[in-house]
Write a structure and sequence with these properties.
By secondary structure, the chain is α+β, with helices and mostly antiparallel strands. It has helices spanning 2-14, 22-31, 39-42, 73-81, 94-105, and strands at residues 49-56, 59-65. The chain has a two-stranded antiparallel ribbon. The longest helix is centred in the first third of the chain and has 13 residues, at 2-14. The radius of gyration is 19 Å and the shape is elongated.
Length: 108
């Protein structure tokens, strides 16, 4: 009986609105939305970075992930839902995409 009470208390605290802030949740999504984090390509500050360098026809080329900290919300959502880009495909809800957008556009 005591164990059930402890479990119910724990579950009710997990369901509380203030268990994790929206910003904390967005940061967790940014670091690991569904396997690989946005930070691996776009950088910890969402300002973009070189993912890989390679040689093509004797010339060094860079594969660069663009900055996402200064794009419009429409472009951000379009990129997340575009099947033709080289970005991992995530199954994010609209609320998760909103949270991510707010997080990356508020990076210093």
């Amino acid at each position: 009986m005591r164990l059930i009470f402890v479990l119910l208390t724990l579950l009710s605290s997990l369901a509380a609105d203030d268990f994790i802030t929206r910003t904390e949740y967005a940061k967790l999504l940014y670091l690991n939305p569904r396997g690989i984090g946005c930070d691996k390509c776009h950088g910890s500050d969402a300002k973009g970075k070189v993912i890989a360098s390679f040689k093509q026809k004797g010339e060094i080329k860079n594969l660069v992930a663009p900055p996402i900290n200064n794009i419009t919300k429409a472009d951000f959502f379009k990129a997340l839902n575009n099947p033709k880009i080289v970005m991992p495909k995530y199954s994010l809800t609209n609320e998760e995409m909103e949270s991510l957008y707010e997080y990356v556009t508020k990076q210093p």
